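Continuing the series of single-chain predictions for the mutant panel. This is the parent chain; the variants come on the following pages.
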Amino acid sequence: MYLFWHAIFTALLAILLCRIANANPARLHLLTTVSAGVLVDLDHLFSWNPKYLSQLFPTYLGEGLTLALRTNVYPCIFHLWLWPLTLLAAAVALKRRKLHTYLLAAAVSWALHLALDGVVVLL
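Parent structure:
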């Protein structure tokens, strides 16, 4: 269910970002946004349990759509607000470069992932 919902919400976010920017949704931009929102969960491999395989896709619609705040995310080091904030700072610093759009998309979708997970840990 985690992979499914993160992919759905970040794809919707990518489309919304393209609408706000009044731009055509380039495939690379959509791929950047969705992958940055989903690949954050790779850090769960550090604490892998075979039961996680059954939690990738929901068994019924609505499964996994609960909000619970998380203050302990370790050893999941990608689940810290430090990383999307760093990407956002890089996007601001590289505003005149082509990479700016992709860094901004990655930062926003990573932040969406952390918000969906209810992460409240900055560092």
